[in-house]
Amino acid sequence: xxxxxxxxxxxxxxxxxxxxxxxxxxxxxxxxxxxxxxxxxxxxxxxxxxxxxxxxxxxxxxxxxx
Amino acid sequence: xxxxxxxxxxxxxxxxxxxxxxxxxxxxxxxxxxxxxxxxxxxxxxxxxxxxxxxxxxxxxxxxxxxxxxxxxxxxxxxxxxxxxxxxxxxxxxxxxxxxxxxxxxxxxxxxxxxxxxxxxxxxxxxxxxxxxxxxxxxxxxxxxxxxxxxxxxxxxxxxxxxxxxxxxxxxxxxxxxxxxxxxxxxxxxxxxxxxxx
Lengths: 66, 198
Prior knowledge:
The structure holds two protein chains of two kinds. By secondary structure, chain A is mostly helical. Chain A contains five helices and two strands, in the order βαααααβ. Chain A has helices at residues 5-11, 16-23, 27-34, 42-51, 56-59, and strands at residues 2-3, 60-61. Chain A has a two-stranded antiparallel ribbon with strand order 1-2. Chain A is globular. The model of chain A has no long low-confidence stretch (mean pLDDT 92). The longest helix of chain B has 30 residues, at 135-164. The model of chain B has no long low-confidence stretch (mean pLDDT 86). In chain B, helix 7 packs across helix 8 (178-196). The interface between A and B is medium-sized, with 16 and 16 residues.
Protein backbone atom coordinates (compact mmCIF):
# COMPACT_ATOMS: atom_id res chain seq x y z
CA UNK A 1 0.00 0.00 0.00
CA UNK A 2 1.33 3.44 -0.96
CA UNK A 3 0.33 6.49 1.01
CA UNK A 4 0.78 10.26 1.17
CA UNK A 5 1.10 10.51 4.94
CA UNK A 6 4.69 11.81 4.89
CA UNK A 7 3.85 14.39 2.23
CA UNK A 8 0.77 15.62 4.16
CA UNK A 9 2.68 15.69 7.44
CA UNK A 10 5.58 17.65 5.97
CA UNK A 11 3.16 20.14 4.37
CA UNK A 12 2.01 20.96 7.91
CA UNK A 13 5.53 21.07 9.31
CA UNK A 14 4.87 18.35 11.89
CA UNK A 15 7.43 15.88 13.13
CA UNK A 16 6.63 12.17 13.22
CA UNK A 17 6.29 12.41 16.99
CA UNK A 18 3.81 15.29 16.70
CA UNK A 19 1.73 13.39 14.17
CA UNK A 20 1.90 10.33 16.42
CA UNK A 21 0.51 12.36 19.33
CA UNK A 22 -2.38 13.58 17.19
CA UNK A 23 -3.15 10.05 15.99
CA UNK A 24 -2.54 8.47 19.42
CA UNK A 25 0.13 6.14 18.03
CA UNK A 26 3.91 6.01 18.55
CA UNK A 27 6.54 7.74 16.40
CA UNK A 28 7.70 4.28 15.35
CA UNK A 29 4.23 3.47 14.03
CA UNK A 30 4.04 6.75 12.09
CA UNK A 31 7.42 5.94 10.56
CA UNK A 32 6.32 2.40 9.63
CA UNK A 33 3.15 3.74 7.99
CA UNK A 34 5.04 6.42 6.05
CA UNK A 35 7.63 3.97 4.75
CA UNK A 36 4.91 1.51 3.71
CA UNK A 37 6.15 -1.19 6.10
CA UNK A 38 2.86 -1.25 7.97
CA UNK A 39 -0.71 -0.70 6.79
CA UNK A 40 -2.76 0.87 9.57
CA UNK A 41 -6.07 -0.51 10.81
CA UNK A 42 -9.29 1.06 9.57
CA UNK A 43 -9.79 3.15 12.76
CA UNK A 44 -6.28 4.65 12.45
CA UNK A 45 -6.76 5.20 8.69
CA UNK A 46 -9.99 7.09 9.47
CA UNK A 47 -8.16 9.19 12.10
CA UNK A 48 -5.45 10.01 9.53
CA UNK A 49 -8.07 10.97 6.94
CA UNK A 50 -9.96 13.14 9.43
CA UNK A 51 -6.76 14.83 10.62
CA UNK A 52 -5.74 15.77 7.07
CA UNK A 53 -9.35 16.54 6.03
CA UNK A 54 -9.10 14.09 3.13
CA UNK A 55 -10.71 10.81 2.13
CA UNK A 56 -8.98 7.55 2.94
CA UNK A 57 -8.65 6.63 -0.75
CA UNK A 58 -6.92 9.93 -1.52
CA UNK A 59 -4.25 9.13 1.11
CA UNK A 60 -3.87 5.36 0.70
CA UNK A 61 -3.62 3.71 -2.71
CA UNK A 62 -2.88 0.09 -3.65
CA UNK A 63 0.61 -0.41 -5.10
CA UNK A 64 -0.70 -1.40 -8.57
CA UNK A 65 -2.39 2.01 -8.96
CA UNK A 66 0.99 3.76 -8.80
CA UNK B 1 13.75 6.67 7.48
CA UNK B 2 13.45 9.60 9.86
CA UNK B 3 15.88 9.51 12.76
CA UNK B 4 15.91 11.27 16.07
CA UNK B 5 18.04 14.41 16.05
CA UNK B 6 20.08 12.90 18.90
CA UNK B 7 20.58 9.58 17.10
CA UNK B 8 24.42 9.58 17.03
CA UNK B 9 24.56 10.57 20.71
CA UNK B 10 22.22 7.77 21.73
CA UNK B 11 24.24 5.30 19.64
CA UNK B 12 27.34 6.37 21.55
CA UNK B 13 25.52 5.76 24.84
CA UNK B 14 24.48 2.29 23.67
CA UNK B 15 28.06 1.55 22.63
CA UNK B 16 29.30 2.69 26.06
CA UNK B 17 26.71 0.47 27.77
CA UNK B 18 27.86 -2.53 25.71
CA UNK B 19 31.52 -1.73 26.39
CA UNK B 20 30.93 -1.33 30.14
CA UNK B 21 29.05 -4.66 30.21
CA UNK B 22 31.83 -6.38 28.27
CA UNK B 23 34.50 -4.93 30.57
CA UNK B 24 32.64 -6.07 33.68
CA UNK B 25 32.14 -9.53 32.19
CA UNK B 26 35.82 -9.87 31.25
CA UNK B 27 36.96 -8.48 34.62
CA UNK B 28 34.78 -10.94 36.53
CA UNK B 29 35.63 -13.98 34.44
CA UNK B 30 39.40 -13.49 34.08
CA UNK B 31 41.33 -15.83 36.41
CA UNK B 32 43.54 -13.09 37.91
CA UNK B 33 40.53 -10.95 38.90
CA UNK B 34 38.40 -13.89 40.09
CA UNK B 35 40.51 -14.05 43.24
CA UNK B 36 39.53 -10.48 44.18
CA UNK B 37 35.79 -11.08 43.77
CA UNK B 38 33.88 -13.16 46.34
CA UNK B 39 32.52 -16.35 44.74
CA UNK B 40 28.95 -15.48 45.70
CA UNK B 41 29.14 -12.24 43.71
CA UNK B 42 30.58 -13.75 40.52
CA UNK B 43 27.26 -14.98 39.02
CA UNK B 44 25.56 -11.67 39.80
CA UNK B 45 28.36 -9.51 38.36
CA UNK B 46 28.56 -11.79 35.32
CA UNK B 47 24.79 -11.48 34.93
CA UNK B 48 24.90 -7.68 35.16
CA UNK B 49 27.80 -7.57 32.69
CA UNK B 50 26.00 -9.89 30.26
CA UNK B 51 22.80 -7.85 30.57
CA UNK B 52 24.67 -4.60 29.87
CA UNK B 53 26.53 -6.08 26.92
CA UNK B 54 23.36 -7.68 25.54
CA UNK B 55 21.21 -4.57 26.00
CA UNK B 56 23.87 -2.30 24.47
CA UNK B 57 24.32 -4.54 21.42
CA UNK B 58 20.56 -4.95 20.95
CA UNK B 59 20.03 -1.18 21.12
CA UNK B 60 22.87 -0.57 18.67
CA UNK B 61 21.35 -3.09 16.27
CA UNK B 62 17.74 -1.98 16.77
CA UNK B 63 17.69 1.62 18.14
CA UNK B 64 13.88 1.83 17.84
CA UNK B 65 13.48 -0.54 20.82
CA UNK B 66 13.06 2.37 23.21
CA UNK B 67 10.44 3.92 20.94
CA UNK B 68 8.03 1.07 21.53
CA UNK B 69 6.36 2.28 24.68
CA UNK B 70 5.13 5.76 25.65
CA UNK B 71 7.99 7.63 27.38
CA UNK B 72 5.56 9.07 29.93
CA UNK B 73 4.81 5.53 31.12
CA UNK B 74 8.43 4.42 31.53
CA UNK B 75 8.35 4.57 35.34
CA UNK B 76 5.03 2.73 35.52
CA UNK B 77 6.25 -0.02 33.19
CA UNK B 78 9.53 -0.37 35.09
CA UNK B 79 7.71 -0.61 38.43
CA UNK B 80 5.28 -3.15 36.95
CA UNK B 81 7.72 -5.43 35.17
CA UNK B 82 10.90 -4.96 37.23
CA UNK B 83 9.91 -6.50 40.61
CA UNK B 84 8.64 -9.91 39.38
CA UNK B 85 11.60 -10.33 37.01
CA UNK B 86 14.16 -9.33 39.66
CA UNK B 87 12.53 -11.52 42.31
CA UNK B 88 12.53 -14.40 39.84
CA UNK B 89 16.26 -13.90 39.26
CA UNK B 90 16.74 -14.08 43.05
CA UNK B 91 14.51 -17.15 43.22
CA UNK B 92 16.61 -19.03 40.65
CA UNK B 93 19.71 -18.40 42.71
CA UNK B 94 18.41 -18.95 46.22
CA UNK B 95 15.07 -20.69 46.17
CA UNK B 96 16.13 -24.35 45.82
CA UNK B 97 18.56 -23.93 48.73
CA UNK B 98 15.93 -22.22 50.84
CA UNK B 99 13.39 -24.94 50.10
CA UNK B 100 15.84 -27.56 51.36
CA UNK B 101 15.87 -25.83 54.74
CA UNK B 102 12.09 -25.94 55.09
CA UNK B 103 10.53 -28.98 56.79
CA UNK B 104 9.01 -31.47 54.35
CA UNK B 105 5.27 -31.16 54.05
CA UNK B 106 2.64 -28.63 53.19
CA UNK B 107 4.75 -25.55 53.91
CA UNK B 108 7.54 -26.68 51.59
CA UNK B 109 5.04 -27.60 48.85
CA UNK B 110 3.33 -24.20 49.20
CA UNK B 111 6.69 -22.39 49.13
CA UNK B 112 7.70 -24.33 46.02
CA UNK B 113 4.98 -22.51 44.09
CA UNK B 114 6.58 -19.09 44.61
CA UNK B 115 8.45 -19.03 41.26
CA UNK B 116 5.18 -19.91 39.49
CA UNK B 117 3.45 -17.02 41.27
CA UNK B 118 6.25 -14.69 40.16
CA UNK B 119 5.70 -15.77 36.54
CA UNK B 120 1.98 -15.09 36.98
CA UNK B 121 2.85 -11.64 38.38
CA UNK B 122 5.08 -10.99 35.36
CA UNK B 123 2.27 -12.08 33.00
CA UNK B 124 -0.09 -9.60 34.67
CA UNK B 125 2.53 -6.86 34.23
CA UNK B 126 2.88 -7.80 30.55
CA UNK B 127 -0.87 -7.51 30.00
CA UNK B 128 -0.90 -4.09 31.68
CA UNK B 129 2.06 -3.06 29.49
CA UNK B 130 0.24 -4.22 26.34
CA UNK B 131 -2.68 -1.94 27.14
CA UNK B 132 -0.38 1.08 26.86
CA UNK B 133 0.68 0.24 23.31
CA UNK B 134 -0.73 1.10 19.90
CA UNK B 135 -1.73 -1.45 17.26
CA UNK B 136 1.65 -1.91 15.56
CA UNK B 137 3.46 -2.14 18.88
CA UNK B 138 0.93 -4.69 20.15
CA UNK B 139 1.49 -6.73 17.00
CA UNK B 140 5.27 -6.66 17.54
CA UNK B 141 4.88 -7.71 21.18
CA UNK B 142 2.37 -10.48 20.48
CA UNK B 143 4.34 -11.96 17.58
CA UNK B 144 7.52 -11.77 19.69
CA UNK B 145 6.02 -13.54 22.68
CA UNK B 146 4.32 -16.16 20.46
CA UNK B 147 7.54 -16.99 18.58
CA UNK B 148 9.52 -16.98 21.84
CA UNK B 149 6.99 -19.38 23.41
CA UNK B 150 7.24 -21.65 20.37
CA UNK B 151 11.04 -21.60 20.49
CA UNK B 152 11.05 -22.30 24.24
CA UNK B 153 8.63 -25.22 23.77
CA UNK B 154 10.84 -26.66 21.03
CA UNK B 155 13.94 -26.42 23.23
CA UNK B 156 12.11 -27.86 26.26
CA UNK B 157 10.78 -30.75 24.15
CA UNK B 158 14.25 -31.39 22.72
CA UNK B 159 15.76 -31.34 26.22
CA UNK B 160 13.06 -33.74 27.46
CA UNK B 161 13.66 -36.07 24.54
CA UNK B 162 17.42 -36.03 24.98
CA UNK B 163 16.99 -36.68 28.71
CA UNK B 164 14.72 -39.66 27.99
CA UNK B 165 17.30 -40.96 25.53
CA UNK B 166 19.96 -40.70 28.20
CA UNK B 167 22.00 -38.26 26.11
CA UNK B 168 21.82 -35.43 28.68
CA UNK B 169 20.76 -35.17 32.29
CA UNK B 170 18.10 -32.51 32.84
CA UNK B 171 17.51 -31.78 36.51
CA UNK B 172 14.31 -30.42 37.97
CA UNK B 173 16.08 -27.12 38.65
CA UNK B 174 16.43 -26.67 34.88
CA UNK B 175 12.67 -25.98 34.79
CA UNK B 176 13.39 -22.70 36.61
CA UNK B 177 15.36 -21.59 33.54
CA UNK B 178 12.41 -21.93 31.16
CA UNK B 179 11.06 -18.47 32.02
CA UNK B 180 14.44 -16.68 31.62
CA UNK B 181 14.92 -18.54 28.33
CA UNK B 182 11.50 -17.30 27.19
CA UNK B 183 12.45 -13.73 28.16
CA UNK B 184 15.76 -13.98 26.29
CA UNK B 185 14.09 -15.33 23.13
CA UNK B 186 11.37 -12.68 23.41
CA UNK B 187 13.97 -9.88 23.72
CA UNK B 188 15.89 -11.05 20.65
CA UNK B 189 12.81 -11.60 18.48
CA UNK B 190 11.32 -8.28 19.60
CA UNK B 191 14.53 -6.47 18.65
CA UNK B 192 14.50 -8.11 15.21
CA UNK B 193 10.84 -7.22 14.59
CA UNK B 194 11.32 -3.65 15.82
CA UNK B 195 14.25 -3.26 13.43
CA UNK B 196 12.08 -4.56 10.60
CA UNK B 197 9.55 -1.75 11.10
CA UNK B 198 12.12 1.03 11.53
